[in-house]
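Methods: example folding runs. The two proteins below were folded one after another, and each record is reproduced exactly as written to the output file, sequence line first and structure-token line second.
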Amino acid sequence: MEDWRKIKRAVFARHSNPWSAWTSAPLMLVPVWRRSWRDAALVGVWMALNPVVFGKPSHERAWATRAVLGEEQWIAHRPLDTAMAVDVAATAAGLAAMVAARQRRAIPAAAATVLEMGLLMAYWELMARYYDRNGGVRCKS
């Protein structure tokens, strides 16, 4: 169990690099839209590698860094709060975008993606605040 915590901590430490944080979300629609297993494999590989490709950031002042580290803390406690509702809404918008992409309906897919990204940015703001409220203390669980 302790090994899993160390691995999780290492992944979050590297994923908190802003380059890692900003290079993932909308890519998942590409293989759905194109109906391509090859694209799905490439996106899957990128999603698996993304949290470890980039190095640990040199500081924790960046908004994206604080958001990812706040999410790590938040996941450990999973409070039923506004962040939970925003995360659920972002997930629902992402699923709607996937359905629209599967149907190759460009405007609904784009609208749902914009909504998802807006909600994701709101969620990140809540996670950055969560991190700031907890004094930037790293999660140990």
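Second run, written to the same file directly after the first:
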Amino acid sequence: MRRTELTFQATESKGRVSGILLRPDDAFCLYLFAHGAGAGMEHSFMDAAAVGLAERGVATLRYNFPYKEAGRGGPNPAKVLVATVRSAVAEAGRRADGLPMFAGGKSMGGRMTSTAASEGELPGVRGIAFYGFPLHAPGRDSAERGAHLADVGLPMLFLQGTRDKLANLDLLRPLLEEVEPTPKLHVVEGADHGFHVLKRSGRTELEVMDELADTLSTWAHGLL
């Protein structure tokens, strides 16, 4: 398995950001993996997810958004985040070395990826996978943040926990039923937005991470 640290130009005004390419020897695809609002690309969840995917033949390219690269707390405006996604897609295309590409990410990173796709083609990207799509703020149930999904036009995979306070499944399910092609929704029983499970569930977080990696790699295989 090869780990390559890199940088690329995010936007003209925000400069360069860092990335980590993790590529197993038996890679069959590359997943462009954006981080969530509160943690950067080297967060323990991002690292564990990338390693789990690599063990299943999925290379990953993680990257920072400009605000994280600069060590700031709050996310950049959506326009900057979307532009960074597009730059990351271009960088992934240069680094893929012929591997089929998928994109997405954790929470906000996934939503910014689908937003970018809804506004125009992401060259080379065959599908989008979300680790916990943030449909609404906690306690403010609404499907408004998912309205753009109807304009994505790519296969999509949603990995969602039943205890996720940022995605009421009773709102997400009917929303996805109106999207073409029909997205795949994989529900993780007892998991919250960070895919943590309660001890009384009888499951370990490692088992949950294995389930997520198995599901994403199987979904990607099925699209090739």
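Comment on the second run: The first helix runs from residue 44 to 54.
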